[in-house]
Write a structure and sequence with these properties.
Length: 44
């Protein structure tokens, strides 16, 4: 049986920055793979 998309997204592991390994506070389906610190953002 297929899983609902919302349930699938809930069980995904947290995304990690590929540079420093810090957890990324974005939705799992987002394409980004760097944290705000490694992107150079100051205040977010």
């Amino acid at each position: 049986m297929l899983m609902k998309m919302s349930e699938f997204l809930k069980v995904l592991p947290p995304k990690l920055c590929y540079i420093c390994g810090e957890r990324i506070e974005e939705q799992h389906e987002c394409y980004g793979n760097k944290c705000h610190k490694c992107l150079g953002f100051k205040d977010l």
